[in-house]
Specification:
Layout (H helix, E strand, L loop, with lengths): L2 H13 L13 H6 L5 H12 L4 H8 L9 H14 L33 H8 L6 H12 L13 H16 L4 E9 L1 H4 L8 H22 L6 H4 E5 L2 E7 L3 H15 L2 E8 L6 E6 L12 E2 L6 E2 L4 E4 L2 E4 H10 L6 E7 L6 E3 L4 E5 L7 E5 L4 H7 L3 E2 L12 E5 L2 H8 L6 H21 L5 E6 L4 E5 L2 H12 L5 E5 L3 H13 L5 E4 L2 E4 H18 L3 H19 L7 H21 L13 H11 L4 H12 L2
Parallel strand pairs: 13-14, 18-19
Antiparallel strand pairs: 1-3, 1-4, 2-3, 4-5, 6-7, 8-9, 10-12, 10-13, 11-12, 15-17, 15-18, 16-17, 19-20
Amino acid sequence: MNIVNKEELIYAALLHDIGKIFHYYTEHPLYKKWKGHKWWHAYASAELLRLKKFPDNIVDLVKNHHEDPPKSCLLKLIKRADTLDASFRRHFETKEVKGKPISLPIIPTKRASSLHGEDPLKIIMNYLKPKKSLEYYIAQIKECTSLLRADQRISDISLYVHLILTTAILSCLMNDEEPYVIIIECDTRERARFATIERVEYLSGLQIYAYFGLLASIARTLQGTPYNPSIHIISESPLHIIVLMPRSLINKLKENLKKLSKDINTKIKVVVISLLRAYRKDEEIIEPEMKLVVWGKGVACSYCKEYRPQSEVIKFGRYNVCYQCAQITMAHKYLGKSRIFSIVEGIYKGGLVYRSLNISVLTGKANKALLMRYINPKTSEDIVREGVIATDLIIQSYRKDLKVWILIRLEDLIKKILDKKEIKFHKYISLCHLIVPLFKEYLTHEHIDNYSIIRCDPIYAILQVEDESIALKIAHSMLTRNISSVITRAGSPGITYLKIINKAENIKEPSIIINEEIIKKEYIEKAELFLKRLSTILGIEIEKATKLVSKVFINLYSRLSRLKNADALERALIKSELLCMISEILKSETITLFPFYELRDPRETLSEIVEESLDDMYELLNTIYILYNI
C-alpha cells in the first residue's frame, strides 16, 4: 500500500457516510435517487463526492464500503474499521425516523443544524472541495455532522463521532496496531485554591493552560509517527480529552503527561480501555513531582506563596510571580476571544510555554505547527474558511456580584455508561463531545440569563448565579435527569472551587447538597407527591400547602427529628401534635375547604396520609422547607 493510497483511504473513511446528511433533506435529488437502495447512503455519499470532483479512488472506496465480500485490501480495511466501529452501538431504540437530530439527556436538540446554528448541507455544498488538508475536512465534518444522527434508529449517537472513530480505528489497523481509547482528566482543584478576589483570573487561566497542555502532550506523543493528532483526538474540553491511539504509544503518552503534570503542577488521571479485549480498563493517576521547598530560601511567589530560586521568578507588575503562575495568568488573556492557536515545538517568548515538553502555544497559524485549534469561532462559515478544527471553550470570568455557586455533576451521565460490562463507546463519546455546547443551550432553554460559567466539561459544570432560588431551579431540573448538584454561598474563589468539588465527590446517590443540607432525589419525589395529596385533601393550592408544611416543620423541628427512633406511644403523640398544628394553621390562615368535605371529616383523610408518610415525615418536611423557602 503506497502513501497516496493510505491518504485516500483516510479521506474515504472520514467521508464514507457523509451522504447520511440527506436524511434531513428528503426533497434533495440525491436522496430521492437512492432512497430505495439498501445502502443508499453509500451511493449518495459517493455521488456527492463525485459532484464535488473528488478523485475516483476516494469515490469508489466510499461507494463500495458495504461491499460483501470486499474486492480489494483497501475496501477490506475500511469495512473492518466501519464494522468494528458499528459493533460499539449494538442497541436499536426505535423504528427508523427520518430527519430527527441527535437527542441527549441534557436537552433534546430541536433541529438539525451545524454546531453554530447554520444549515449543514449549505455549508457542505459550498465548501466541500477536493485537494484540501485533512484538518480542513475534519473541521467541516465536525461542524456540520455533530448534531446529526449516525443512525436514524438511535437517538444519542453523533454522525461525527461515528466518522472520526472509524477514521482513527482505520489509522491504527493500517499500521497493524491495536486501537485503545484513552480518557484523560486533569484535576486542577489543588492549584485552583490560589485564586483569590484579587487574582480571579487564576481559575479560568489554569483551565486554558491545562487544555493546551493536554493537546500539546498528545501532539508531542504522535510527532514523527504515522498518526495525525487531528484524527486521534476524538473529544476535547478544557480538563477532559478522549484519544484513540495504538497500544504502542500509550507509555510514551504517559511520559509526556508526566512532563505536563510537572509544568502545571496538577494530578492527571489516565484511563486506558482496550477495544478488542472485552473492554479491559486500566486506570492510573499521574502525580506531579514533589518539590523540596526550603522555607525562606529563594523568592516567594506572590500568588502560590511557594519559594522558588531567583531564576524561576519573574516580575509581574509589582509582584514576584513564579513561572507557572505567570503562565496561568497569561492564559486568562485568551478567555472568550475568537482566534486560532498553534502548538509548536520549541520555547517562544510571547506564547504559553511548557518547558518540560519543550512546547509553546502561539496565536495565529504557524507553518510547522504540530496541531492548531480555532477557539470560540463565531460562525460555521468562519471555521470552514479557515480550515482549522474548532472548539468552543465556554469558560467565563469570575464575577463578584454573583454570590451563589452551583456545581452540576455532569459525570453522572457518563459514568454509568463506562461502568457497564458492554460499553457503548458511541454514546459515551457523543455525550462527552456534545455535553458542553448543549449545556449552554440548556441554560437558554431554562431562561437562566444572569450567570457566569466558571467551568464546563464532561465531569463538572460550575456556575455563579444570583441567588439560591435560581440555583435550586437548575439543580431540581438536573435531578430529574439523575444528575446531582452542589449549591453553596461564595467565599474566596479558589477555596469555594475546592470545597464544592470535594463535596461533589462524596455524593453517593442522586441528590442536591445545599450548603450543608443533603436532599435526596427519592425524598424530593415523595415530597412532591405528599404536597399534591395534601393540597387535594384540603382543597388548597400547592403554594398554600407548602407554606403550611413549612410552618409545621419550623414548629415541630426537634420533635420530628426523633421520629425514626420513637416508640409507638411517642409516634402517636407526634402524629396527633402534627394534625392539631395543621388544623390550627388552617384556622389562622382562614383557609376555606371545598363544600364536598362537609360529607367527610377532612382530618380523617389527612390522618391517613400523615400515617402513611410518618416514617419519612422529617425528611419530607425538611425537603419541602429547603426547596420552597430559599
